[in-house]
User: Fold this.
Amino acid sequence: MTIASPGIGANLDVNSIVTQLMQIESQPLTKLAQKEASYQAELTAYGSLSASISTFQTQMSALSTASRFSAVTATPSDATVLTASAANNATSGTYSIEVTGLAKQQKLVADGKASLSTPLAAVDSTLTFDFGTISGTLNPATNHYDPGATFVSAGAGTKTVSITAANSSLSGIRDAINAAGIGVTATIVNDGSATVPYRLVLTSDTPGAASSMKVSVSGDAAIDTLLANDPQGVQHLSENVTAQNATLKVDGLTVSKATNTVTDVVPGVTLNLLKTTALNTPITLTTSRDTSAVQSAAQNFVDAFNSLNTSLTKLTYYNATTKQAGALQGDITARNIAANIRLTLSTALAGAGGYTNLSQLGISMQKDGTLALDSDKLQTAISNNSVDIASVFAQTGRATDGLITYSGGTSSTTPGSYAVSVSQLATHGDSVGSGAVGSLTIDGTNDTLQVSLDGVAGTVTLAHSTYPTTAALAQEVQSAINSVTAFATAGSSVTASASGGNVITITSSKYGSTSTVSVTGGNGLANLLGTPTETAGVNVAGSIGGVPATGSGQTLTGAAGTNAAGLALRVAGGATGARGTAYYSNGYAYQLGQLASRYIGTDGLIANRTDGINASITDIGKQRDTLNLRLADIEARYRAQFTALDTLMSSLRNTSTFLTQQLANLPSTSSSSK
Assistant:
């Protein structure tokens, strides 16, 4: 039977009845909504906690490097003479410095030309630049070197520039040299001459006496006449500025350096020379530990911890008076995070040297759970032992032997102290001639060598010349080998020298078993090396913590499976035998940074917890959908039942009315009896 609307029969308020009944039936939905809101609040709280831990992790990572706690300042008494910066390994001290000369770059000037754009050559040409030292007298009238001058290559390798005939104008040559990136800058100057005003100027990019240029030209004669310049031969360029080293006196000792940036005179200090001092008027350079940087880093550590502690407290608090609680009050994950952080801070460090806990540096836990810094106590610690402060905060390593340096550790390295012993020092591979060089004149009959350097093969071609000494020829060998692209690409290079008896030795710059020099052929082999003796380099060998370590080049690395696993130490030289102690420490900032990373990582505690919460919210959604379907069925059933009841009641009412009417129409009993 079709019902048009509820209540059409007996006028029952079916809608109101069903609505009230459905409110009772829907109570599980309300509970689900409350549960979902609780989960959402928990998710929001975890999002806030994750953000706080992420910030904390970033701050701890910044404090995990030793350089934050071992900075050194270098202050000159006159900053117009020089500026200075100090590395962390610089020691405190005072130095007297007198700058007597600044390093200069060589400048070579070509003859003038009438045009910038007119090609000068009929055929293509190649410019070859070599860099080295010139010995001899420069004639001030010609700006050329007098006969007898010599050029000795520095051995860094030659550089070439291609000049096409079509692009052989002054501007074309300038652009080709600059585009080649060979360490030479070309410019054009107008000297005001009426007929040939344009002059090409070549400037070495590197200052210092060993950066003088020798320019060779193959190809067009016009280019040769313009640019070829051999200080001990034909010179077509004028030397308007002579290359020279910087000269200075440090504590009365005379020093000569190739550049105005001096890095190896005062250990750990870089000097940038700006001008010369007045005669016998030195300035003072003072180096000292930057205690303000240590104070600042320690305060940053305290502030970072306190900020995270505040966030954790807000999320986990409970006020018994107001009955108010944080969103994560009682949450096991939040409690574990707070407990693990405090456990880390209360655990003494291993391998940290003189300091093993924060309280020794004036950092202590307060009653309210925050950290506080006693700056005076920290300053005392800095004054007493500044070297070990970095190890309290950062991931650090150090060795007691000055020729052994810490190179790194891994997650497998256990903090602690390890005895170091060296049984074999690393060496270079080399090739030593069997006798004196046959001829100092190099030409087409003896100018090539087939060389294998550190396992890479290449062909070497020597410049044709008569060299004044075996040492000069050795420098040419060095330069030619280092010019081979295959070697440079592999990061390999050599040094070549002449020893007593005019014997040439070629030595790889690398250390270890992969360091080899083998001269296998070439028409110059017999003249230069005869039958050379070739010796491969060897790796450093020794032990760390009493266990044999792995040697590679100059680096000893702790053996896998031991406490020293992954601890890498570079042994730069010294003697064999016991070499002191190496220390490795994971400071508090490093440990806390690693701990924080595990909490906020994709597989961390917070991620796992929020994944579980999201799964619960998804499950609530499924329960809600199922319950809504069931409630729809219940409501339909209620409506059907109450509509049927309404119809039944209407029918009964109609029957009642009919019967009442019928009874009223029955003849009266009393009337019939009369």
User: Anything to note?
Assistant: Residues 72-103+247-289 form one domain. Residues 1-5 have pLDDT under 50 and may be disordered.
